[in-house]
Amino acid sequence: MAHTLTTPDLAVGVDDVARLLTPDGERIADPDLGRWVADVDHELLRGLYRDMVLVRRIDTEGIALQRQGQVGLWAPCQGQEAVQVGTARALRADDFAFPSYREIGVNFVRGAKPADFVIAWRGEEHSTFNPYDINTATPQIIIGAQTLHAVGYAMGIQRDGADQVAATYFGDGATSQGDVNEAMIFASSFRAPVVFVCSNNQYAISEPVTVQAKYPIAGRAPGFGIPSVRIDGNDVLASLAAMRWAIDHARSGKGPAYIEAVTYRIGPHTTSDDPTRYRSKDEVERWKQRDPIARVEALLRAEGAFDDEFAASVASDADELGAKVREATLTATSREPIGVLDHVYEEPHTGLQEQRREFGAYLAGFEASEEASR
Amino acid sequence: MTEMTMVKAINAGLRRAMADDPKVVVMGEDVGRLGGVFRITDGLLDEFGAARVIDTPLAESGIMGTAVGLALRGYRPVVEIQFDGFVYPAFDQIVCQVAKLHYRTRGNVKMPITIRIPWAGGVGAAEHHSESPEAYFVHTSGLRVIAVSNPQDAYVMLRQAIASDDPVVYFEPKRLYHQKGEVDLDVDLADAPPMGLARVAREGSDVTLLTYGSQVTTALDAAIAAEDEGVSIEVIDLRSLSPVDYRTVTASVRKTGRVVVTHEAAKEAGVGAELVASVTERCFHYLEAPPQRVTGHDIPYPPAKLEKYHIPDLDRILDAVDRVLDKPNSLTGLEEWRTAETGRAGVGGGVL
């Protein structure tokens, strides 16, 4: 096809997707995706279930902590656990992930510690974990900027002759950004081993995806020369399968691959907005019926692999993690005041060094007066 | 020592840095086959191959953002922005990512990226090809900002910039690209003056003339002309705009008591404003006259045929020298007018 002389029909539907698990928890066949999860047994399924429950618990805790004034802001991920956990589980430890600020599940799977989920939102640090410790970049706040970082990192992998991949996560709103489009051009032109994961959660704050796209987002990738798949993002099996396909494609030297995961953000964009202004109750209710966690539970129950003992152990793990997240928040400590001037430069910068001396002397003045008043 | 143009010196600096460190990669538009629109990267593709001399798609944010990723992976990207005015599409990646990642990660991530920008006017270029955006980058913490003025500095400071673990914005004055100068290609970086040091380009005793990059040659010409009138100008080539070497600057101001700053960029909130403020803080009691700025006008860069009225020339600089020496000058009489206007204006005055 070298030209299109007609306008395509609007095609932003949520059911025109590949899936392996129905909303009722029934496992179904898919000729393309099925083979990538043929090995998935009950143990792995239970692991995915457990991860999703734990991620939801972190999210619930985060919202509560924000309401209690312990963190300044929270960007909830409820409803998006399947795409986050399913895709991240397909990555190797030595691959490198470039998430947005909403990818709580990705960071959890990559090995983030309880404090890592809350310290930045609390305003103690911009980044808690060292990106090289868990091969995951600091969650990005500028929309779509991380997609270029992933492509550049993947170009580095190529130059090293390594077989790792880079994976980058972003939302439907980000697909309107120049950076995301530039990332796809660079990735395609250089055949960089990078996987794009677009979590289409239907809204960019209040703006519906129809403001960003008049054609399925996955449909854009082929225009850049990148193969893509549009999956049910609330289906953890489809997420795992699609990511295994995409990673295999990238790792084997065929270049980038693209996943659009059609999902829904059950909560607000962040704790600062009011989603009732832009979404109907009915719409949210409809999406709750597609819950990614209930879906796996239904499957496991139907196959006799979900019993009270398992449910209790997952609930206990979630309680424990929730308590740790809370404790990490409440026991967080700030740096010394002079520490705000740390790490701006790698090598000494005389201008900043001078400010440091001045601010240090100013701070020391308080210490001296406290000393004197004792 | 070898005599060569700045173009050749930068080319030699790139070649040397790439030979010394296999992690150094050069990337940008047309840097490969063509050797860059100014031929700065001439021959590098043949010598180092396409994996290290990367002809990129035409997307400045893409170039900068992928350089961030390469740096995360342990590479040392040297990015060419084809022309000064084209750096704006990459501005977000530079100020939000390149400048902040080290701080954001508390030093865990290094950003050893060198951003080369062919810079400023005076070459009769089309619109967007003669911009002086240095103040934006000086204002951004986390970046080092360099402006070179001669082939030797261009060669040495480019190698220092590439070797630095901090991101460096490296401005190359297009107007001086083909001026020749002596270059010591065998200079040992360990012995060279650090990248942040200013250079006293010409010693003098009456007035300190602070400048950098494209204006250094004009400033030196002004100093020669002033000598004929019995005025001794000390010209300081700042070389580094972040950090500024205030030790060298204040030593000169304390000697002369008079300061003129000249640059091609617009005046308002420019590098000159910062220099004057900082010099005043440090040397107020040494000053014999209010410091003066000679800059580009506060206008979008004008059409090429008119740029000679925008770029400070020798006469405008000497006029400002007359001002700090309290000699008759173009503002004589106007100063009183300005004071009177300011006096009448003010909040609610309706005259501002």
TrEMBL record, chain A:
Give GO MF terms, alphabetically.
magnesium ion binding; pyruvate dehydrogenase (acetyl-transferring) activity
Q: Would the keyword Oxidoreductase be found if you checked this record's keyword annotation?
A: yes
Give me the segments passing through the membrane.
Answer: none
- Residues covered by the Dehydrogenase E1 component domain: 50-334
User: What EC class is this?
Assistant: oxidoreductase
| Pfam families membership | E1_dh
Keywords, A to Z? Oxidoreductase, Pyruvate, Thiamine pyrophosphate
| Keyword presence, Zinc | no
Q: Which cofactor does it need?
A: thiamine diphosphate
Output the GO biological process annotations, alphabetical, semicolon-separated: branched-chain amino acid catabolic process
**InterPro entries in the cross-refs:** Alpha-ketoacid_DH_E1_comp, DH_E1, PdhA/BkdA, THDP-binding
Q: Which SUPFAM superfamilies match?
A: Thiamin diphosphate-binding fold (THDP-binding) (SSF52518)
Enzyme Commission no = 1.2.4.1
Q: What is this protein called?
A: Pyruvate dehydrogenase E1 component alpha subunit
Query: What organism is recorded for this protein?
Result: Microbacterium immunditiarum
Automatic annotation (TrEMBL), chain B:
What molecular functions are annotated in GO for this chain? Answer: magnesium ion binding; pyruvate dehydrogenase (acetyl-transferring) activity
Q: Residues in domain Transketolase-like pyrimidine-binding?
A: 4-179
Cofactor requirements of the protein: thiamine diphosphate
Q: Which UniProt keywords apply?
A: Oxidoreductase, Pyruvate, Thiamine pyrophosphate
Q: What are its E.C. numbers?
A: 1.2.4.1
Q: Which Pfam families match?
A: Transket_pyr (PF02779), Transketolase_C (PF02780)
* Superkingdom of source: Bacteria
InterPro entries for this protein = THDP-binding, Transketo_C/PFOR_II, Transketolase-like_Pyr-bd, Transketolase_C
Q: Which Gene3D superfamilies match?
A: 3.40.50.920, 3.40.50.970
Per its UniProt record, what CDD domains does this chain match?
TPP_PYR_E1-PDHc-beta_like
State what protein this is by name. Answer: Pyruvate dehydrogenase E1 component beta subunit
Instruction: State the organism of origin.
Output: Microbacterium immunditiarum
